[in-house]
Amino acid sequence: MSLNIKDNEVDIVIAALRSDLTAFMEKWRPFFSRFHLIIIKDPDMEEDLQIPPGFDHQVFTKSDMAQILGATSINFSGHSCRYFGYLISRKKYIISIDDDCLPARDNTGTLVDAVAQHIVNLKTPATPFFFNTLYDPFCKGADFVRGYPFSLRNGVECALSCGLWLNIADYDAPTQVVKPNERNVRYVDAVMTVPVRAMMPMSGINIGFNRELLGPALLPGLRLAGEGKQRWETMEDIWCGMCAKVVCDHLGLGVKSGLPYVWRGDGVDVKGAMESLKREWEGVKLMEEVAPFFQSVRLPRTAVTAEDCVIEMAAMVKEQLGPLNPVFAGAADAMLEWVKLWKAAGSQGA
Amino acid sequence: MAGSGSYGAVPSTPLLKDELDIVIPTIRNLDFLEMWRPFFQPYHLIIVQDGDPSKTIRVPEGFDYELYNRNDINRILGPKANCISFKDSACRCFGFLVSRKKYIFTIDDDCFVAKDPSDKEINALAQHIKNLLSPSTPFFFNTLYDPFCEGADFVRGYPFSLREGVPTAVSHGLWLNIPDYDAPTQLVKPLERNTRYVDAVLTIPKGTLFPMCGMNLAFNRELIGPAMYFGLMGDGQPIGRYDDMWAGWCSKVICDYLGLGVKTGLPYIWHSKASNPFANLKKEYNGIYWQEEIIPFFQSVTFPKECTTVQKCYIELSKQVKAKLGKLDSYFNKLADSMVAWIEAWNEFSASGKVGAAAAEVPNGPAKGK
Hints:
The structure holds two protein chains of two kinds. By secondary structure, chain A is of the alpha/beta class. Chain A has ten helices and nine strands.
């Protein structure tokens, strides 16, 4: 099926954690150039950003953020700066890719247009209520298999598209330390809907989402005490993804995982990973509480928007997880603060 | 035999050689076995011959096999033989019942060896064995698919306490070429062929149902065997082509309850024969409507804590089928009774190698060969 992607439907949000974005943007130029880019400079970064010409873009720095948001308890430093981009965007779809990722090549050697693939994922229905063994039934050359209930074949709207990574996979610090030389070389040619009530770790490295449907649920909630600039030192996207999945499951929206791939990183800094282990171990331990919590969350019927859902979840997080670790109480507060910011940003109009 | 270095070749000691049976239902012939010879020959075959028992099905030379026709099924099961379908590949589950092995691989006689994207022949049986011998991960979805696969692992954020996984009970393989579509889809897309090789195995999450296809399927008979009953289909029945799906839904809800895993994905086989869509439509017709009730039924199944074995779960399921689906059509009352007969036959055969009145030793056993 050919899908009409309107340029003015999409914002590409890039969190700049490195100052020189030239190589990154040149490689992505064929796929980025038709769209508007929102580039958020890590508030901790001193140097100016280097951005090649020819892109329709806006850059937001620490002072821009302060001016637009005023005082806020949300910490936008590091990878979390991208959430500012989500907040101020006015587009229907947002694609966000880490600045250490380049276009990947598929099994035919062709460069993958990750932006287009995310949009296809978001514009075609998801099928969370029954697993299709031939994966995405809306893909060309595929369909629903024998036995798939006909009443479920319309699917639901897809609100979140989670892509993958070739080369350096998104492993946590312990796994990086144990397998520093492992590279992900397996290109799995499939997109699939993550079934309802199935939990998954969302990697923020390569995602797309429907901002109109899901926006408030893509939130900077959980910040590790020792959070750093390396992906394996963060949990913000994992937490965000769990929230987003619960919201999607409750609202009857879909989450897809699989294509597109991006090519990630150069190598693994093993010593850095070992250092991170000492810090990120906190995140690993927290997941043991986080997972059962999200698996048991049941939102009330009165929660009919993503905002409503986030507010309800924030209260549950405070009540059930708050007592276990102050980081969770902080997350609950951040979630509520986020909704406030979201409402304020929304009321400023398009 | 091909060298053990190349992918897809048979290793010098085939894995699970004495612990796995290959069950093949057939009504035509077994010519397809020639292509599978390098991969299947070390293993014992159980052939279930459907249709006219007076017809002789020739098994290619060199295979070690047992062959059962309808007369054998009637003799061995006695009155309980009614639970085994006639004129439908659902009869394959008879082979599951009489097997003595821990693992079963079942394949249709129109399925051939497929090739992977590098043009190497795929040893589907070896892949199924890999799937069954490595854990499943039903409680949390791993976005990198099978974490136990070479070159993969659990992604960041996957809870460590869930990384051991659970035992795998079912390995569901896929098909290149003729896809497993229902009749309406076949009618709309008669020329569609599945050409996409998706290089992944993944665990189907707990609480999620799927349509299981019996064409290329393996399972741990000790863990889930009794739930692999393929129902009442074919001759004299109001429904067909729902046998494997029925077994799949029953076994999935039981696996979910008992903490066992179900995998889907690799291996691929090459499905060569497109069945007649008009004939299929007649068989599936009732199923298409009934399914709309059947699916919510399975989605809401719960088991009381007394159900500690597969058999107990299955008997409980049969009661719920009768209570909740019986009002949909009287077929489900018959089906529920057959489910009970199946479990009774399974238990009796497991214990003594005999079922009910057919307990007396008979001089002519099933047709055997090597």
